[in-house]
Amino acid sequence: MTTQQLIDQIRIKKSFLTVGLDVDLNKIPKHLLDLEDPIFEFNKAIIDATHDLAVSYKPNTAFYEAYGIKGWLSLQKTINYINENYPDIFTIADAKRGDIGNTSSMYAKAFFEDLNFDSVTVAPYMGKDSVEPFLAFENKHTIMLALTSNEGAFDFQTLNVGGKELYKHVLETSKTWKNSENLMYVVGATKAEYFTEIRKIVPDSFLLVPGVGAQGGSLSEVCKYGMNANVGLLINSSRAIIYASNGTDFAEKAREEALKMQQEMAAILNDIKPN
Ligand SMILES: O=c1ccn([C@@H]2O[C@H](COP(=O)(O)O)[C@@H](O)[C@H]2O)c(=O)[nH]1
Predict the structure, then answer these.
(1) Taken in order 80, 83, 85, 90, is the CA torsion positive or negative?
(2) Which helix (H) or strand (E) holds 42?
(3) What is the helix (H) or strand (E) element at residue 131, kind and residue range?
(4) pLDDT tens-place string over residues 76-114
(5) Euclidean distance between the first and final Cα of the chain, in Å?
(6) Sign of the alpha-carbon torsion through 15, 18, 23, 26
(7) For 30-61, how does the pLDDT look when each residue is reduced to its tens digit (9 = 90+)?
(8) Which residue numbers delimit the Orotidine 5'-phosphate decarboxylase domain (predicted)?
């Protein structure tokens, strides 16, 4: 998917919601556990119930890898289901990869070619040659960790390095890499006060923003400081939506939570003018 197509979807749906598909067998409704592939059945019901309210889905691969080959197959069925039934949805493999160049190329093939995700998250720690192999794929997006939502973000990411915080070096340096137009960045909703500085460095880039809902970040604060003329934000919520109920009404309740977020987003979008 191109960036323009993503922007168009945001305008059409009046939503910049990403639903995180972080499926834990201990948390899903018990009646699904008797089915052959409970993870896929859960995802399918959540996707069918929320696809008109969200512009993207973000399975975190850890929740699939934890179940071995069966989990990987559930992930494959989930991405195929989205691509076949809702081709306008932007898909994010939250895998946080990155390694020496030839290994990164294999990671990129796995997520962009084999699984056919639109985007994958990567860690910047190994630098340019670990990220550029992902950037080489046309109309695919590499979402690099910049300032994460967790407390540990303050261990390294905000360290002062030569008069500037490390996350700022990451943002600035990455803009010089080949095909950097294919970059997006992860910035945690719990760090709303940093968005103004971040927008000075990457005014036009899309930011994937986890941390609203279960982690307590504020949608309105993030939008106030992080939104650009093309919206430029994908706000992720995982647990607060998908585990709204663990009864037979789980999909309905997930829709109710997604609808609340979408309505808040629609109201915010009403106040900004398109480019
Ligand atoms: O900085 C980061 C980067 C990634 N995540 C991931 O996003 C979701 C958040 O889930 P919630 O249930 O909405 O808290 C999850 O997959 C994280 O691994 C993040 O939270 N922060």
Answers:
(1) positive
(2) helix 38-50
(3) helix 128-135
(4) 999 999 999 999 999 999 999 999 999 999 999 999 999
(5) 20
(6) negative
(7) 999 999 999 999 999 999 999 999 999 999 99
(8) 16-254
**pLDDT tens-digit series, residues 186-216:** 999 999 999 999 999 999 999 999 999 889 9
Q: Could you say which of 44, 70, 96, 128 is catalytic?
A: 96
In this prediction, residue 275 carries a pLDDT of 38
Residues framing ligand 1 (Cβ under 6 A): 20, 22, 60, 94, 148-150, 186, 188, 210-211, 213-215, 236-240
Residue 164: active-site member: no
Nearest Cα neighbor of 58 from 267, 266, 239, 273 is 239
Q: Which two tokens stand for residue 65?
A: 């890898």
The DSSP code sequence of 44-74 is HHHHHHHTTT-SEEE-BTHHHHTTHHHHHHH
Tokens, residue 142: 């590499």
Region for 163 from its dihedrals, namely left if φ exceeds 0, alpha if ψ lies in -120 to 50, beta otherwise: left
The encoded tokens of residue 225 equal 């400081």
Matching residue, tokens 């996350």: 167
Domains of the chain: 3-272 (3.20.20.70)
